[in-house]
Specification:
Shape: globular
Strand content: 25-35%
Number of strands: 14
Structural class: alpha+beta
Largest sheet: 8 strands, mixed
Order of helices and strands: HEEEHEHEEEEEHHEHEEEE
CATH architecture: 4-Layer Sandwich
């Protein structure tokens, strides 16, 4: 019984403390880039800053020192946000992703420990070909921070806007190769206290061997029953059913009890996905996962030396080919 009660108690305690001590952040904007529903035909249209439509939601003039539940603003479902694409300088964009590449997945805990986090962020993005972030935020300095990374393209899927801290929150993907298409999804179920959904980003890239690659960056619904996590995962079934190439799914699935772990494994089996275990995995809470189809994981490890978040990053070297 203690093995069930303790994880729930710790998770609730973490949420309460994050609500009480979250400090205000700067004001920022994101720009809409609507996904093309025809997978595999047209690349993202990248508009000049002056032509990009800004979010219409107002930003409060006075910052709040508490992350108040009433300060959360819903984001329309299906909004994929194209954040940044470098045109020159370091980290030039490649048209294709190598068939053998490095992926990092990391819940960044909203970049709370900023100085240490930014050092870790620059180090990880220097060697990653794909960088999948959960609990990512967008504020007025984010574009400058991303410009300093080695990854030339970034896409963000927003789950909610925090009016008190003036930040957009969600999942974000950085890529060394051209992301041809992106689509964002949100959970139908909301977190019970904050009344906010979790976000999922779905991307299509092209591998150097000519095959399409599907990449899914997922943040699992947390403080709800396991069936709601199952519902979130099953939103992806129609895409997984018809996608003709290799698939990579990674992120924070919030599998903090046996029932949630069983939901994940059942869903993976139904979609012919292999769940990989890091070679140095001694985590008590195994929340972050990597799943693949038609991809061999040559190396997967938890980067325990990274301490700037309550999650350690997963780093994987993959070879994808049907």
């Amino acid at each position: 019984m203690n093995k069930i009660v303790l994880p729930i108690f710790l998770a609730i305690t973490k949420l309460v403390f994050s609500v009480l001590v979250f400090l205000p952040r700067g004001n920022g904007q994101l720009f809409l880039s609507f996904p093309n529903p025809h997978w595999g035909t047209q690349p993202h249209e990248v508009l000049p800053d002056s032509q990009r439509p800004c979010f219409p939601w107002p930003v409060d003039k006075q910052p709040s020192r508490l992350w108040l539940f009433s300060d959360f603003k819903s984001i329309p479902k299906g909004s994929a946000l194209h954040v940044l694409q470098k045109e020159n300088g370091s980290g030039m964009l490649s048209p294709v992703l190598p068939s053998t590449f490095r992926l990092v997945s990391w819940n960044m805990q909203k970049q709370n420990h900023f100085i240490e986090w930014f050092h870790n962020f620059k180090t990880l993005t220097a060697t990653a070909d794909l960088f999948l972030a959960q609990e990512a935020i967008w504020e007025n300095t984010t574009a400058d921070l991303l410009q300093q990374s080695e990854l030339p393209q970034w896409v963000m899927g927003v789950s909610f806007y925090d009016k008190g801290n003036k930040t957009y929150n969600g999942v974000m993907t950085g890529s060394r190769a051209q992301i041809l298409h992106s689509e964002s999804m949100q959970t139908n179920r909301l977190e019970p206290l904050t009344k906010t959904p979790k976000a999922i980003l779905i991307h299509q890239l092209q591998l150097a061997n000519g095959q399409p690659l599907l990449v899914i960056n997922l943040h699992g619904i947390n403080f709800t029953r396991s069936k709601h996590l199952r519902n979130e995962l099953e939103q992806l079934n129609p895409i997984l059913l018809v996608f003709p190439g290799p698939v990579v799914v990674a992120g924070d699935f919030n599998t903090w009890n046996p029932w949630r772990k069983e939901v994940l494994q059942t869903w993976a089996t139904q979609n012919l996905l292999v769940t990989w275990t890091p070679k140095n995995d001694n985590r008590y809470f195994k929340l972050d996962h990597l799943l693949t189809r038609y991809c061999e994981v040559m190396d997967l490890q938890i980067l325990k030396e990274v301490q700037s978040s309550d999650h350690h990053p997963l780093q994987a070297d993959l070879r994808c080919q049907m």
